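Table 4 source record.
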Amino acid sequence: MPRSIWSGAISFGLVTVPIHVVGATEDHSIRFHRYHLADQGRIRTRKVCELEDREVGSDEIGKGYELATSQIVPITDEDLRELPLPTARAIEIVAFVPLASVDPIRIGDGYYLQPDGQVAAKPYKLLRQALARSSKVAVARYAWSGRERLGLLRVRGEAIVLHAMRWPDEIRDPSSLTPPPVEVSEEEIEGALALMDTMTRDDLEGDEFRDTYTEAVAELIEAKREHRRPETVPEPEERPGQVLDLMAALQQSVSKAKESRGEDDHAEGDHAEVRELPGRKKKAPAGKTPGAGAAAKKPAGGKATGEKPTGGRATGEKPTGGRATGGKATSKKAAPKKETSKSTAGKKTAAKEPAGKKATTRRPRSA
C-alpha cells in the first residue's frame, strides 16, 4: 500500500469526510546515476554554503524569499501551516460541473482519496455514489506545499480520485501558434474521418500502448551486463518530408491502417482492377439463330444451345473447348481421351435436351 502523502478532510457543505491522500500513479522510468569515467566513482551533488565555502547538512538548511541579493525573508513550514486559509487542512468542494466543461490541459496528476477510519466510511460512500449518479465532477480548493490549488474530484471504480488543476492564469494563450488561414475541402475532411474510423479503438489495451522505450533500455542494460551485443533495431520506415497530395496521403494511411488490422482494402476500390470475365457469351446478330452447323463448330460444352458446359468437367477432365481442340495438341495419348470426352459430352447433352430439340438437330444431318 502506498504511503500517505497528506491527511485532512473533504468538506462537502456541512459534511466532513476525513481522508488520506495516496499516490494513484507509479513511475517505472529507469534512473541513471552520474559516475567518474576513470574509476566509476559516484558523482554526487553536495549542498555548499557560498559564504563559508563548506558543505552543510539538512538541519542547517531553511527556505526563504529573496527580496534582494543581500536580503532574504525566511519562511518556515510552521508559518505556512498557520496561514488563515480554510483549505489548509481540508479539500473544500466549491462547485459541481460536467466533466466536458473542464479543459483537459488544466488537469494534472491524480491521487486516491482514502477514507480515514470507520467514521468516514458512510460519508465517503455517499459522496462517491452522488458523484457517480450525477455524472458530474467536483471542483475543490486545497492547500499543499505552501500554495493553494484547484482540484477535480471524480469517481474511479469504488474510489474518489483527486486531480490537481492549474489556475486559469497558468494556461498560456495558444493564439500565437495557430497556422495561417487555409482552405480545407469537404473531401479532405471525409478522408480524415475515414482514417479516424480505421484507427478507432474501444480501449487502450494492446502492444500500441506498451512502454517500448523502457523495455529497450532494460534490454540494453541486461545485454551489457552479460557482455553481449544488444539486439539490432530495424531501420524505421522512411517518410516523405513534405506532403504533396493530402488526399493521396489520407487514402494511403487508411489502406495501411486496414492492412495492419488484417482487413481487406478492396472494398474501397482504390486498388481494384477491372477485368472482363472469361468466356462471356456474345449476342447473336438479329434474325439469326445458331443451328446445328454452329453447334458443330463450337465445343461440346453446349454454349450454342444455352446449356452449361458438359465437356471435360463432367468426367473430371479439362474442358475440351478452346485451345485443346484447336489442332495444336498432337499427342497420341491425348486423342482417345478427347474422343471419350466428346462422346460422353454428346451423350450427356442428348440426355439433358428435350425430345423436340433432338429431332431439330438431326434433320439437317440426314439432309
